[in-house]
Amino acid sequence: xxxxxxxxxxxxxxxxxxxxxxxxxxxxxxxxxxxxxxxxxxxxxxxxxxxxxxxxxxxxxxxxxxxxxxxxxxxxxxxxxxxxxxxxxxxxxxxxxxxxxxxxxxxxxxxxxxxxxxxxxxxxxxxxxxxxxxxxxxxxxxxxxxxxxxxxxxxxxxxxxxxxxxxxxxxxxxxxxxxxxxxxxxxxxxxxxxxxxxxxxxxxxxxxxxxxxxxxxxxxxxxxxxxxxxxxxxxxxxxxxxxxxxxxxxxxxxxxxxxxxxxxxxxxxxxxxxxxxxxxxxxxxxxxxxxxxxxxxxxxxxxxxxxxxxxxxxxxxxxxxxxxxxxxxxxxxxxxxxxxxxxxxxxxxxxxxxxxxxxxxxxxxxxxxxxxxxxxxxxxxxxxxxxxxxxxxxxxxxxxxxxxxxxxxxxxxxxxxxxxxxxxxxxxxxxxxxxxxxxxxxxxxxxxxxxxxxxxxxxxxxxxxxxxxxxxxxxxxxxxxxxxxxxxxxxxxxxxxxxxxxxxxxxxxxxxxxxxxxxxxxxxxxxxxxxxxxxxxxxxxxxxxxxxxxxxxxxxxxxxxxxxxxxxxxxxxxxxxxxxxxxxxxxxxxxxxxxxxxxxxxxxxxxxxxxxxxxxxxxxxxxxxxxxxxxxxxxxxxxxxxxxxxxxxxxxxxxxxxxxxxxxxxxxxxxxxxxxxxxxxxxxxxxxxxxxxx
Length: 694
Known about the structure:
Blueprint: E1 19-22, E2 27-33, E3 42-47, E4 52-56, E5 68-71, E6 76-82, E7 91-96, E8 101-105, E9 117-120, E10 125-131, E11 140-145, E12 150-154, E13 166-169, E14 178-182, E15 191-196, E16 199-203, E17 215-217, E18 222-228, E19 237-242, E20 245-251, E21 257-263, E22 270-276, E23 285-290, E24 295-301, E25 307-314, E26 319-325, E27 334-339, E28 344-348, E29 360-363, E30 368-374, E31 383-388, E32 393-399, E33 405-412, E34 417-423, E35 432-437, E36 442-448, E37 454-461, E38 466-472, E39 481-486, E40 491-495, E41 507-510, E42 514-521, E43 530-536, E44 539-545, E45 551-556, E46 563-569, E47 578-583, E48 587-591, E49 603-606, E50 611-617, E51 626-631, E52 636-640, E53 652-655, E54 660-666, E55 675-680, E56 685-689
Antiparallel strand pairs: 1-56, 2-3, 3-4, 4-5, 6-7, 7-8, 8-9, 10-11, 11-12, 12-13, 14-15, 15-16, 16-17, 18-19, 19-20, 20-21, 22-23, 23-24, 24-25, 26-27, 27-28, 28-29, 30-31, 31-32, 32-33, 34-35, 35-36, 36-37, 38-39, 39-40, 40-41, 42-43, 43-44, 44-45, 46-47, 47-48, 48-49, 50-51, 51-52, 52-53, ...
């Protein structure tokens, strides 16, 4: 079916000659608003080299009074306005790029602003917008870090104050947070499923350690993944925790998936999930950790991919994760839940019918961060080892005959233990432990005794800030080896075991990425173990094993947008905010919102050379949002008129003065039509384009 969009009597030449106003030193950004609570919109202009924001009062005919200057931090580059303390008086928030901070200036309603309050940010911040992101009727601040390719959010308290910055969303920039492997296309080659802030990415393995181009599935903001055959068709599926939902990707057996949203447990955000057959009906079930209620929800599967909420267990203060394992050897899966807020873990013994017994809580020290299970005392009962980062200890909880745990001992580690793995490092048929410490950059070996106790044996220095550790036999000599990834030093360290509890000097593999997690497997079917590591901002690396404990490093290439600026608006009239993002390749990316803080795959529109700034408004009075973009190299403005369904017409372009650097849209002459203001940094000028559309 062909659809044509016909626009009748729509103005395409909305602006006339500009009016010029002098500013302070190096104006780079502006916003407008009723700063004096009058009927006319005023201007606030950021003066980058002057370290100030200048306020211009509107006379009501499109002309402005000389600016009033207010000091900010060093090198201010962007400003936004809003009612930050809900007093119906507009306030200002200014980005200071050299200070890595925000200046908040609360307005008095008469055009006068109070002394700035400073909020520190991460590095490389370039712009700011405001909006109520969490529907709490309080304005929040959104900032963009061009160095980190990340977006940060400062949630408003409603009284003019803001919480510390949180990095929440990266618009389609690969920043892996979780990954799993499986044979998704039944070709006997291992494939990858990688979660990042924009969705799920499937990379099919070629069997030689390389992967095909990734296929992306929009899954909002995934936090955790589990794989399994949830609909009993002998094809691997994926269950993904994303915000308030569980998203199912049902496998077709050829590496592709069908996406279905299946559940919103208690309308609570989902933090973590695990799977297992909790009621012994041969169908996979799910156990879900929710954030706000700190509860575990059990969803029973029906074998066709559907689930039903069966039970809810309200446990602790700050639940972080859950694992399913048969702790007490009764052939019924149990749940172990980590509670960071109360410094403990909770065990829910399974009854075999989808329910679990009363919660049993165990103190595990201050700040538990990582947990593994294993039979440490050879009594055929699973035990637990938990790292407590704030107390620098490893807690051992031994499984007992009555289906509970008893605390065995705590073992001191170096500063801030970050991850742990178990294996038999000295070939005595007793499990040992290897614990990484983040701040001391070390790995400590604890040799196990037959009674579940351990002795500290040796500590090895590794590289900066190890974040994840695994153990396997990488050189095929029958001795357990260890491999760990290091966040700060951007490297992988491999220690080959001697079989007596000691290890050879580490081999370091430098990776150009801040590494977060790694796994091992034979990805190229050569019967030699390989490694895969994920890092930020957009990196997945494979280390192909040579079979002798050495590896060859290769990067799996994944493209991203390199976003520069953005604006938001409801471009498809679904009452949900969308994004328009300016990339550094002369592209405009439209990301339609799903309503939960995530976005669909982008649509691309070309603009002229070197786009620097973007705004959205209805420039031709057809009740549909349009876009306007500054093109610095060409000294032009491009306008893309919106169709109303999220799509835009091809841009029209008109000229402006030299070196335009910032664009603002508003009704400056109070004629109910949207005008444009353009900053020219080099000449210290502002150009005003009055809208001439009827």
